[in-house]
Amino acid sequence: MELSEAVPAPAAGADIPNAETHLPGSAFITAMVPDEDPTREPTIHVHGNGEHAVPYEVMRWYMEKVAQEIERCRWSG
Questions:
Q1: What's the rounded Cα separation, in Å, for the pair 68 and 52?
Q2: If DSSP codes are grouped into helix, strand and coil, which group holds residue 65?
Q3: Contact 27/44 with Cβ under 8 angstroms?
Q4: Residue 1: DSSP 8-state
Q5: What one-character-per-residue DSSP string does 6-50 give?
Q6: Are the beta carbons of 27 and 33 closer than 8 angstroms?
Q7: How far is CA 14 from CA 6, 8, 18, 20, 23, in A?
């Protein structure tokens, strides 16, 4: 699972109905949830050049999503 900053979508799609106005940029935090072996622990990787400020509520939301994915992978096996 990746957390990235949103970047504006290309202007070429502006005339398409319901087109996204923003797309995911490069991931700066990645959660690796091993689904092939539920006994392995998940890991968090922080990427990038420079500093990224992540609002507390965004990080809480992201970590809740990671926890849901861990639960899904551990109970599907």
A1: 24
A2: helix
A3: no
A4: -
A5: EEEPPGGGTTSTT--SEEEEEEEEEEE--SS-TTSPPEEEE--SS
A6: no
A7: 16, 11, 9, 8, 13
Vertex 40, ends 35 and 44: CA angle to 5°?
A: 85
| 65, 33 Cβ separation under 8 angstroms | no
- Side chain identity at 46, as an amino acid letter? V
pTM, two decimals, is 0.71
pLDDT digits (tens, 9 = 90+) for 27-59: 889 999 888 887 888 999 988 777 778 889 999
Q: In 3-state terms, what secondary structure has residue 4?
A: strand
Convert the pLDDT of each residue in 12-21 to its tens digit: 766 777 777 7
Cα–Cα distance for residue pair 11/31, rounded to 1 Å:
31
Cα(33)–Cα(23) distance, integer angstroms: 23
